[in-house]
């Protein structure tokens, strides 16, 4: 099998794992109804998945760093199938929580392994494109996985979604074992070295951009289905279409984010994307009962959210070019932690105020992200000024 086909196989795997993470947002109202729990309680299924991903996956990766990568991926896929299978067959909210923990840890290990293998099997000079292709699978899960999951849940039952993911996971195990070569493990990076970067204020500020951006995203997206169904009165078919359209917008936004970064620079791309994101959220809050304005604003919001990915990745790499892998790993953990925190904050907003209030709280999260970008830019200018002064003195 050619290198390109191997990478696309890993991208499809990333799509499958991404769907298992994001699908809850698309069927949250149906889970809450069938389980006899509140929407807020059902929303914690997003929180536990993200927490398991954020803390469990790095721990497993650290413990298995020397293990052959294909074997590790196959083990992770096996537990991923188990987690989805349990969600399909077991009854009760508490058991569903357990299945989500298993999914979260195994999904995180699968994605990290896929990225590692993609970099190894890529042709010389094509490693960046290979990683982008695998990550694109995650984005594609928003475009196709979530709306398709909504359609399946409407036509049959929400449990059928997890049953389908488990079956495709089993097929993936067979395909991966036949197509992906053995990739030896690596020398472990001491945890002390990984966490040393967090002692630098500029690194903490840069990672806080990711944290607040994703918190804002998670607060809103976690409750988008019950919000649009309950408040605006959308039908299931209309909601599926809207989820598909904003998924397409996220793909276009991701592409545009790379262009914007090259054209205007990292900080301008981040500031512009976050500003549009915040404005879109405020407009959504103000036009929640006007579908003609609401739907275009949802498209703008999704476009702006995912346009932030490329500049933020480059932002982190530029700050620590010699420790890019560690920074991106930390960023991934921060992202999943933010997903969990956002879902939790969104639940509090719904429970204490109303479903519509999540939009305003999400906008507040984006405001904090904008402030973090401003601080990061000031730090960058200050360091540049110090460097220029030092060069002149010598």
From TrEMBL:
<feature type="transmembrane region" description="Helical">
    <location>
        <begin position="97"/>
        <end position="118"/>
    </location>
</feature>
<keyword id="KW-0813">Transport</keyword>
<keyword id="KW-0812">Transmembrane</keyword>
<feature type="transmembrane region" description="Helical">
    <location>
        <begin position="355"/>
        <end position="375"/>
    </location>
</feature>
<feature type="transmembrane region" description="Helical">
    <location>
        <begin position="72"/>
        <end position="91"/>
    </location>
</feature>
<keyword id="KW-1133">Transmembrane helix</keyword>
<feature type="transmembrane region" description="Helical">
    <location>
        <begin position="292"/>
        <end position="309"/>
    </location>
</feature>
<dbReference type="InterPro" id="IPR020846">
    <property type="entry name" value="MFS_dom"/>
</dbReference>
<feature type="domain" description="Major facilitator superfamily (MFS) profile">
    <location>
        <begin position="6"/>
        <end position="381"/>
    </location>
</feature>
<feature type="transmembrane region" description="Helical">
    <location>
        <begin position="239"/>
        <end position="257"/>
    </location>
</feature>
<feature type="transmembrane region" description="Helical">
    <location>
        <begin position="7"/>
        <end position="28"/>
    </location>
</feature>
<feature type="transmembrane region" description="Helical">
    <location>
        <begin position="130"/>
        <end position="148"/>
    </location>
</feature>
<protein>
    <submittedName>
        <fullName>MFS transporter</fullName>
    </submittedName>
</protein>
<feature type="transmembrane region" description="Helical">
    <location>
        <begin position="269"/>
        <end position="286"/>
    </location>
</feature>
<dbReference type="GO" id="GO:0022857">
    <property type="term" value="F:transmembrane transporter activity"/>
</dbReference>
<feature type="transmembrane region" description="Helical">
    <location>
        <begin position="160"/>
        <end position="183"/>
    </location>
</feature>
<dbReference type="Pfam" id="PF07690">
    <property type="entry name" value="MFS_1"/>
</dbReference>
<feature type="transmembrane region" description="Helical">
    <location>
        <begin position="330"/>
        <end position="349"/>
    </location>
</feature>
<dbReference type="InterPro" id="IPR036259">
    <property type="entry name" value="MFS_trans_sf"/>
</dbReference>
<keyword id="KW-1003">Cell membrane</keyword>
<dbReference type="InterPro" id="IPR050189">
    <property type="entry name" value="MFS_Efflux_Transporters"/>
</dbReference>
<feature type="transmembrane region" description="Helical">
    <location>
        <begin position="40"/>
        <end position="60"/>
    </location>
</feature>
<dbReference type="GO" id="GO:0005886">
    <property type="term" value="C:plasma membrane"/>
</dbReference>
<keyword id="KW-0472">Membrane</keyword>
<feature type="transmembrane region" description="Helical">
    <location>
        <begin position="204"/>
        <end position="224"/>
    </location>
</feature>
<dbReference type="InterPro" id="IPR011701">
    <property type="entry name" value="MFS"/>
</dbReference>
């Amino acid at each position: 099998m050619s290198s390109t086909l191997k990478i696309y196989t890993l991208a499809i795997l990333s799509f499958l794992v991404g769907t298992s993470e994001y699908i809850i947002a698309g069927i949250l109202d149906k889970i809450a109804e069938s389980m006899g729990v509140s929407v807020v309680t059902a929303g914690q299924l997003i929180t536990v998945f993200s927490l398991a991903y954020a803390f469990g996956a790095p721990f497993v990766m650290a413990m298995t760093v020397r293990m052959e990568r294909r074997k590790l991926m196959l083990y992770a896929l096996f537990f991923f199938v188990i987690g989805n299978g349990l969600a399909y067959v077991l009854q009760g909210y508490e058991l569903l929580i357990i299945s989500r923990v298993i999914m979260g840890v195994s999904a995180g290990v699968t994605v990290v392994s896929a990225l590692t293998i993609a970099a190894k099997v890529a042709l010389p000079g094509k490693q960046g494109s290979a990683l982008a292709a695998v990550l694109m699978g995650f984005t594609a899960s928003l475009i196709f996985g979530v709306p398709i999951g909504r359609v399946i849940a409407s036509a049959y039952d929400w449990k059928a979604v997890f049953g389908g993911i488990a079956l495709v996971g089993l097929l993936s195990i067979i395909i991966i074992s036949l197509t992906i070569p053995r990739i030896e493990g690596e020398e472990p990076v001491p945890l002390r070295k990984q966490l040393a970067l967090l002692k630098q204020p500029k690194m903490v500020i840069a990672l806080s951009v990711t944290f607040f951006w994703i918190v804002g995203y998670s607060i809103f997206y976690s409750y988008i289905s019950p919000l649009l169904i309950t408040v605006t009165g959308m039908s299931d078919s209309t909601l599926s279409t809207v989820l598909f359209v904003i998924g397409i917008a996220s793909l276009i936004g991701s592409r545009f984010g790379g262009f914007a970064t090259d054209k205007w620079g990292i900080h301008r791309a981040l500031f512009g994307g976050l500003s549009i994101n915040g404005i879109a959220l405020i407009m959504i809050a103000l036009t929640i009962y006007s579908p003609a304005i609401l739907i275009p604003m949802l498209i703008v919001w999704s476009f702006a959210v995912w346009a932030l990915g490329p500049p933020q990745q480059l932002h982190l790499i530029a700050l620590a070019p010699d420790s890019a892998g560690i920074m991106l790993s930390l960023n991934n953990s921060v992202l999943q932690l933010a997903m969990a925190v956002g879902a939790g904050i969104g639940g509090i907003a719904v429970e204490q105020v109303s479903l519509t209030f999540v939009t305003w709280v999400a906008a507040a999260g984006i405001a904090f992200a904008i402030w973090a970008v401003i601080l990061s830019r000031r730090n960058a200018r200050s360091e540049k000024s110090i460097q220029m002064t030092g060069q002149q003195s010598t």
